[in-house]
Amino acid sequence: MMRNILAILLATTLFSCSQKKEFVFPEEGIEVAKVISGVNVGFRVLEENDMLYIAYYDSIHQMTLATFDLKTGEKDYQVLPTKIGWDSHNYVNMAFDKDGFLHVSGNMHAIPLIYFRSEKPYDIHSMQQIKSMTGIDEERVTYPVFMDAPDGNLIFHYRIGGSGNGSEIYNIYDTATQTWRRLLDKPLTDGKGERNAYMQGPTLGKDGYYHLIWVWRETPDCSTNHTLSYARSKDLLHWENAAGEATELPITLEKKEFYVDATPVKGGLFNPGIKLGFDSEGAPIIGYHKYDKDGNNQLYAARFVNGEWMLRQLTHWTYRWQFEGNGSMKNELDIFNPKSIGDGKMAFGYWHIKEGSGEILFDEKTLETVGKRDAERTYPEKYDKVVSTFPNMKSHVMICGDYLLRWETLPTNRDKKPEGELPPPSSLMLYKWR
Fold first, then answer.
1. Cα radius of gyration rounded to whole Å, the chain
2. Within 10 A of 431 (CB to CB), how many other CB atoms are there?
3. Is 70 left (phi over 0), alpha (psi -120 to 50) or beta?
């Protein structure tokens, strides 16, 4: 009897010792890798199957994939055969399709398509470069975006052409054949070789519509942005204006039924300075900034009411950020998506070089300003603190569920290599922040 008990105890002990302990995140975080710090460019992180998948540029500017096992803390890496220069447009993007194959695209600013796909589900070591998706309009690609179609299939959209003369292209992926085809047989927007649309979205609202906003731009000079516009679609195939009037694609500047605010060239519209939000009932609210009659930058809100767009100035600042020229620049005014905060109110967040940060509160129906408050933080302030002692460094944070990535770089520099000494590589840090 005693022998049997001892055998059971011994077996239990051996079984317990063979089990790996659940990984516990240290308070100080975990360094994923050393990354570029001389150029500010976007990274990407996804969570799948208790793993984090991270796409970034390493310390020698090489596009790299990393995985982090949330159960064990183990890290794994795969370098991809493309290397970034100094262009802040060249962010890296990625997504999983319905079968778990990983798709990665990036490091493009009006150059031929750069695209990779895994040969095995969830496997970064089986990435293969695919030279073409459809073989059409892939010579001058910028702004790669992956998103889900209404049926769950993967969509890839991008700009073909250049700043001031581009069109927006949409492809859709067939998981059964592992091939891409055109979702739309024509561009969604077309500048006819004279201009292009800078877009935010499409964003799926709780009303079942995909909502899209954009500004038109005449040349590579960002001061030639103009004409804030809006369209919506149930299926990404058939598009209409805010009044529900259908259109034939492509949408061009001549179609004034899509205008929200016909601000002219040099009127202060900034392509990153347009943001889409939704009120308490799911109706779209557009927040943006432009110059007022005195030439100062102001925040505005727009909503569609009784067959037309209602526009409302929300601020009365006395400073003008004069932006112009080509390339990525250091912003003096950042804005965030308007959000419903209850009681029929919206909050519109901003950071202003003179006014600091905060949120303008306004009535969601009338758009009348009803107050102001300190900006609500999404994550603890400590993650914004710059650690580097190198001058002018900026902290970058990316959130994925309960996890947060953080790294530091110099500000954008109009896509040129900074002059003088460069900072040492930055630590790409991973934290469990909540």
1. 24
2. 21
3. alpha
Contact (CB, 8 A) for 301 and 255: no
Amino acid letter for position 422: L
Residue by residue, DSSP assigns 220-238 as SSGGGEEEEEEEEESSSSS
Instruction: Compute the C-alpha angle 79/159/165, nearest 5°.
Output: 135
Give dist(CA 77, CA 391) in Å, integer: 31
At 144, the amino acid letter reads P
Is residue 290 within 8 Å of 297, Cβ to Cβ?
A: yes
pLDDT tens for each residue of 12-32:
444 434 455 679 999 999 999
Rounded Cα distance, 82 and 64, in Å: 9
Sign of CA dihedral 282, 204, 141, 67: positive
Q: What is the DSSP string of 54-121?
A: EEEEBTTSEEEEEEEETTT--EEEEEEEEE--S-TT--EEEEE-TT--EEEEE--EEES--EEEESST
Phi, psi of 227 (to 5 degrees): 60, 80
Dihedral Cα 292, 252, 170, 278, nearest 10 deg: 40
**Cβ proximity of 53 and 65 under 8 Å:** yes
> What confidence tens digit (pLDDT) does each residue in 173-212 have?
999 999 999 999 999 999 999 999 999 999 999 999 999 9
Helix (H) or strand (E) holding 13: helix 2-18
The pTM of the full predicted model, rounded to 2 decimals, is: 0.91
Whether 79 contacts 59, CB under 8 Å: no
- The span from the CA of 257 to the CA of 230, in Å, is 9
The residues near 21 (Cβ < 8 Å, ≥ 6 apart) are none
Q: What values do phi and psi take at 18, rounded to 5? A: -80, -15
CA–CA distance, 15 with 158 (Å, rounded to integer): 53
Centroid of chain to Cα 146:
10
